[in-house]
Amino acid sequence: MTDVACIHCGLPVPPGLIDEEAEHQFCCNGCKMVYETIHGCGLQRYYDLKDEQDPTEPGRATGKGYESFDDSTFHDQHVTLQEGGLTSIDLYLEGVHCSACVWLIEKLPNVLKGVVEARLDIRRQVAHIVWNDESISLSRIARTLDSLGYPSHPFRGTRMHDIWRREQHRHLIRIGVAGACAGNVMLIAFALYGGMITGIEDQYRTLFNWAALGITLIALAFPGRTFFVGALSSLRTGALHMDVPVALGLAAGTLWGAYVTVTGGHGDVYFESLTAVIFLLLVGRWVQHRQQRAAHAAIELLYCLTPTTARLIEQEDSVREVPVEALNIGDRVEIRAGDVIPADGNIADGSSRFDLSLLTGESKPIAMGEGEQVHAGAVNISSRIVMEVQATGAQTRIGRLMAMVEKFAQERPPIVKLADQVAHYFVIVVVSLAVLTAAFWLWYEPTQALRNSIALLVVSCPCALGLATPLAVVASIGRAAHCGILIKGGEVVELLNKPGLIILDKTGTLTQGKMKLTSYVGDEKLKPLIAAVESQVVHPIADAFVAACGEEGVNIQPASITSVAGKGVIGEVESQRIVIGSPSFVGEEVGDPPAWVLDAERQCLAQIQTVVFVAVDGKIAAVAGLGDPVLDDAPDAIASLHRSGWEAMVLSGDHPEIVNAVAKQIGIDPELCEGQASPERKVEVVTRALEKHHPVVMVGDGINDAAALTAAGVGVAVHGGAEISLTAADAFLRNPGLQPVVDLIHGSRRTVRVIKRNLFVSLLYNVLTASLAVTGIINPMIAAILMPISSLTVVMLSYRSRTFGTQECQ
Amino acid sequence: MSVIYIIFPLALLIAIIAVITFIWAVRSGQFDDLDTPAARILHDDEPVDIPEVRDKLSNSEKVSGESQASN
Q1: Does A49 contact B at CB distance below 8 Å?
Q2: Reported pTM
Q3: Residue A699: CA atoms inside 13 Å, Cβ hemisphere, count?
């Protein structure tokens, strides 16, 4: 049978879902809902615009109510008032994939009365919606977008985005002006070069010189000012960087050119090289700025996906969805199974198990009941509870950790970049060379002294040198982003060049952070029955069994189920009595277990697994071990790090025995590892390591790692990490596993190699032009030809080199 | 060659106009989103239902249908 494609998304329809009677086939319910909505709204042209050859993601209408979008606190935070009583908001939409989506979303005003304008930015997946608040509610708009297959979230980075947009405008205008100046001076220079060869009347040469001088002064005063400002502040602090030689060359060239022009002499003018340097360096800086911004923007969008609502219980026990910011101390909130706790508080009603792994690093869920305190950020995994709020926002434990992260971020020492180290010596060499040149020519041929030393200063203006680092870094950060490694700044890459110490968190970083069936001794045929029983229970161990024992069992309906909290479950399936639970619980049922069972139990305990017995009709039939398994690629990744000279240690909040067992499995000396580390202790370990090792890299995922991530030289947040760890980290991995960490380190090393090669090549050009200048055989035309060639070489070397992603992700 | 004294300032004037236009374009946000307008331009026009056009289209369909039938 040929594959049937889903009419909405174009993906193959699973055989079980094909409905022979129906006119259209859908791969899932989401697609069906979206398809019906699109037709209901008369927007079927969407399917004409869509590329049919290209299957997209299945529709994912969630059917959420979005009541919190109408709350006044929500409006205060995200909605802006516009002229004429209209309101606007930026929404981040999931599921935007192609140009047909632009059409569909921008048709919103036709579908919903009261929506005035909808504009989508397809790259950022952010829609700007303008509507009349009196005729339609925002939740209605969000529900419509949802049913069209675009679940929406308020875009939280609007303010940052505006700041960045204005900065980007300034950059572009500077580049535009610098480019126009450079282009026009170049045209004038052509006339002057022509004059050098065929002869030119003095009056025209004077005209062109004056015009070029005027344009160069504009280029220096407006776009070029940034180099002088940078050079001045660098001289003040005593740390020479790339702006100093640039400013020196620009100043010397302009002063000399102005002198030649004003006196009407026959000296060389270098105006076109000067303006071209300003233009090219500004372009280099802008590209770098843009690339770094891209990583920040990607992280901003990830924030939008984190839940922002809580379910507030009002009088008469009605529940209303409100934004987290609207919660007050003393409020009662409902937390359903699977929800994240929105604030710190006491459990007022019910009991449940909580996954604290992001908060503390503990891999096993903790049971808590009435009166006990739970913290924001924990995940409620088994049953509904009611919580009384005690602290919100900055007063919560997360809020205090966040403050710690900010404190460390401010105290961080600045990193001396490779290019600035080079620039430091470069300035000294160039200045002393200029002095020596002047001295030599004063003795040999005094009329040539000034001309040659000025030529030296101008031609050594380090254009290619200034581009060498930014371009290499930009090219490799771009490549890394393709592979799912988001890097916030170029310093990260330079720091990771030399091997040092890498500190790894355990839960969620080295392991999956989820319970899984890791060993099973007994009858395989029993597995579907176990799944049948466990699929009726909400518990992490039950989930692990269902995941491991296959789908067949889920369809068997057990006759009866009794679950005993904290111990196990008794079920009757296909007239067999099945007991699953802790050894003591099952022991009560069957008496003393036989020897093979005890053997299996001992083995599981040795690997720090949770042991579960399964008994059928009063006899033990299987022994299962459950744990948080180590990621498949972890041992290889650690071995690869060791090979390239890195030291590795594990630092976790989990129980020391578990930490040691994991360390042994992945090939790290347990002596180097530490368990039961609080967030504060993690920071202490990191700061102590900084004294001995350079660099120190911290890899983690949780809220408990956030402060340590900022304290370390380089903080890396892994896939699935908490929101705070994203803010705190310098690099963020989008793909699961430990291999991306290795890729990051190897990629960084290759990038630094490219930087060094670029620096070497551009220095070579500088040596060449400088020696021409010292010997007095250079003229402005040669300088104007050599300079762009050197810059082009650097550009090509940067973009041609493979730094990140040699095979896997391209 | 004294025409240069007219041509040259004129050329500079054009350059200045170009720069001012560029600055205006940047400030009005035309470089903020470089991806969506490229997609948007493709589907601005709705299919229109003009009777004469429809008749023409259905006629031509008929013709092609007949020619296929004769094959």
Answers
A1: yes
A2: 0.78
A3: 29
CA distance A127 to A93: 7
Return the HEC string of A710-766: HHCCEEEECCCCCHHHHHHCCEEECCCCCHHHHHHHHHHHHHHHHHHHHHHHHHHHH
Measured between CB atoms, which of B1, B12, B36 is closest to A204?
Answer: B1
Predicted confidence at residue A214, as pLDDT, reads 95
CA distance A16 to A776: 84
Task: For A797, list phi and psi in degrees, rounded to 5.
Answer: -60, -40
Contacting residues of A for B40, CB less than 8 Å apart: 99, 102-103, 106
- Hey, is A31 helix, strand or coil? helix
DSSP A539: S
Sign of CA dihedral A277, A279, A282, A286: negative
User: A749: exposed, middle or buried (C-beta count within 10 Å: 0-12, 13-18, 19+)?
Assistant: middle
Look at residue A52 and tell me whether its pLDDT is greater than 70: no
Backbone angles phi and psi of B31, in degrees to 5: -105, 10
User: For the domain bounded by A309-341+344-391, which CATH number is listed?
Assistant: 2.70.150.10
- Answer yes or no: is pLDDT of B66 > 60: no
**Residue A640 or residue A415, greater confidence:** A640
What CATH number has the domain spanning A37-155?
Answer: 3.30.70.100
Q: Best-predicted range by mean pLDDT among A345-349, A450-454, A487-491, A609-613? A: A345-349
* Cα angle A694, A698, A703; round to 5: 150
Structure tokens at A178: 């610098």
**Which of A99, A174, A205, A275 is the best residue to mutate to test the B interface, defined by the most B CB atoms within 10 Å of its own CB?**
A99
DSSP one-letter string for A93-161: ETT--SHHHHHHHHTHHHHSTTEEEEEEETTTTEEEEEEETTTS-HHHHHHHHHHTT--EEE-TTHHHH
> Is the CB of B40 less than 8 angstroms away from the CB of A106?
yes
Tokens coding A769: 């032009």
A57-83: pLDDT as tens digits: 666 667 777 888 888 888 888 888 888
Domain residue extents for chain A: 37-155, 309-341+344-391, 483-512+631-750, 516-627
CATH label, A516-627, candidates 3.40.50.720, 3.40.1110.10, 2.60.40.1180, 3.40.640.10? 3.40.1110.10
Q: Give the angle subtended at the CA of A422 by the CAs of A416 and A425, to the nearest 5°.
A: 115
What pLDDT does residue A1 have? 42
Q: How far is B42 from chain A (nearest CA, A)?
A: 9
What local confidence, expressed as pLDDT, does residue A56 receive? 65
Does the distance separating the beta carbons of A176 and B22 come in below 8 Å? yes
C-alpha angle with apex A42: A41 to A44, nearest 5 degrees? Answer: 115
Closest CA to A361 of A385, A342, A384, A377: A377
Q: Mean pLDDT, chain A, as a whole number?
A: 84
> Is B27 close to A169, i.e. CB distance below 8 A?
yes
ipTM of this complex prediction, to 2 decimal places: 0.76
Of A356-360, A518-522, B55-59, the range with the lowest mean pLDDT is: B55-59
Q: Are A685 and A674 in contact (CB under 8 A)?
A: yes
**Amino acid present at A431:** V
pLDDT digits (tens, 9 = 90+) for A358-371: 777 777 778 888 88
What CATH superfamily classification does A483-512+631-750 receive? HAD superfamily/HAD-like (3.40.50.1000)
Q: Are A142 and A113 in contact (CB under 8 A)?
A: no
pLDDT at position A19: 74
Find tokens 């579907």 and name the residue. Answer: A528
CA–CA–CA angle A57, A60, A62 (5° rounding)? 165
Query: Smallest CA–CA separation between A690 and chain B, in Å?
Result: 42
